[in-house]
Specification:
Blueprint (H helix, E strand, L loop, with lengths): L1 E6 L2 E5 L4 E4 L31 H5 L4 E3 L13 H9 L4 E4 H9 L4 E4 L4 E4 L2 E7 L5 H6 L4 E6 L6 E3 L7 H10 L3 E5 L15 H9 L4 E5 L11 H10 L6 E2 L6 E3 L8
Parallel strand pairs: 3-4, 4-5, 5-6, 10-11, 11-12, 12-13
Antiparallel strand pairs: 1-2, 1-14, 2-3, 7-8, 8-9, 9-10
């Protein structure tokens, strides 16, 4: 298996005969408004360009996986990403709560059930609830899902989606012990309210609950995510996790050969 980090939460999971594009935000740098309003130094999003190898990586995509996309969550499906999916006839896998929304917008939608083990190709996908913020800001957010994917003779992978760390997620990881976890670590925060995704410390806590590899993203691409790769690396080093804690650069490919769940 290969995991290609594109930008922010956008990744590609490449299997031998299958290639999943997750949460495509494909806009050019600066094409989307700021997510911070009460600051004198507004910056338009995304903060960085797509990596130079994006087009070649997208050429292999067979399916798309969306964790959440309503209420203005452009960083998981923006106009450019939607246009690319439609023009390339890419089927979109999503949760029940997003299927009607996407179907109305003419996407080829395949609905995944949150309380079932969903068959996909020769493997399966299990959905895991997210908590995209708490308090008042949490009530305004779309709480999406994470995906635990098992394919034959490949590492199992858990994509947490946008979420703060919850006991449910920690218990899920301790029970399932995914070979790979992909989680946000940017500590995203709006002008008011608390964080809406994991920060560096929470990402480390989740990694410590697991025996597998950990891939941190949702970093340095949006103006409301203050955690840097440098600071996160320092935390991983402090907690002696460098041997299994990955912080890929945009455009970087990670290859994982070993697995513990061959079913």
């Amino acid at each position: 298996m290969k995991v290609h980090q594109i930008r922010n939460a956008t990744i590609i999971i490449e299997y031998q005969n299958l290639c999943l594009l997750v949460d495509p935000m494909l806009a050019e740098k600066g094409k989307i408004p700021s997510l911070r309003y009460l600051t004198p130094n507004k910056r338009r999003n995304p903060l960085v360009d797509l990596p130079s190898n994006t087009t070649s990586l997208l050429n292999g995509v067979t399916h798309c996986l969306i964790t959440h996309c309503q209420k203005g969550h452009f960083d998981h499906l923006d106009r450019a990403g939607g246009k690319w999916l439609k023009s390339n006839n890419i089927p979109v896998l999503c949760s029940e709560q997003d299927s009607a929304f996407l179907r109305k917008r003419s996407f080829e939608t395949h609905e995944l059930k949150i309380h079932d083990l969903n068959t996909f190709e020769n493997g399966n996908i299990e959905l895991v609830s997210c908590l995209h913020g708490t308090g008042v800001v949490g009530k305004l957010m779309t709480h999406g899902v994470g995906y635990f994917i098992n394919m034959p003779n490949e590492p199992s992978i858990y994509i947490t989606g946008d979420t703060v760390l919850t006991p449910h997620i920690v218990n899920f990881v301790k029970e399932k012990q995914p070979d790979i976890i992909v989680a946000p670590a940017g500590g995203a925060k709006f002008d008011l309210g608390g964080e809406v995704i994991m920060n560096g410390e929470e990402a480390i806590e989740l990694a410590l609950a697991s025996d597998g590899k950990f891939v941190a993203n949702h970093l340095e691409a949006l103006d409301h995510c203050p955690v840097t790769r440098k600071n996160l690396r320092a935390l991983a080093t402090l907690n002696k996790l460098n041997h299994r804690f990955y912080i890929p650069k945009d455009g970087e490919t990670l290859e994982f050969m070993n697995y513990t769940n061959p079913s």
